[in-house]
Structure formats: C-alpha cells, structure tokens
Amino acid sequence: MMELAEKLEQLRLLSAGFRIRVFEVPTVGPKVDTLQYLATVRELMKDRQI
Fold first, then answer.
1. pTM
2. What is the DSSP string of 1-50?
3. How confident is the model at residue 2 (pLDDT cuts 50, 70, 90)?
4. How many helices (H) and strands (E) does the chain have?
5. Rounded-to-integer distance, Cα 32 and Cα 23, Å
6. Short-list 24, 21, 5, 38, CA closest to 13
C-alpha cells in the first residue's frame, strides 16, 4: 500500500523485510520522461553509431 501511495517501488522490498542500498550518482545525460525530451535525445544521438 505504501508503494502505491508514495509511488516508490523500493517500498515493496522494505515492507517485505529486505534491505536496500541507495547511491547518489552524478547525472550522466538527459532524462527521457516526456515526448519533448525523447525528441531531444533522438536529435543528440542522430549522428552516433550504436
């Protein structure tokens, strides 16, 4: 229930008795959570070969 209220899937593990570790990391690139950001990332990657 906490997971749904808080929108944090990590709470499911904590409520089941698991321990989790959390690390803060530097930002490595743009987030892609909207169609506008997706277009930006696609433009950035257009000339790169994967």
1. 0.41
2. -HHHHHT-THHHHHHTT-----------S----SHHHHHHHHHHHTT---
3. low
4. 3, 0
5. 21
6. 21
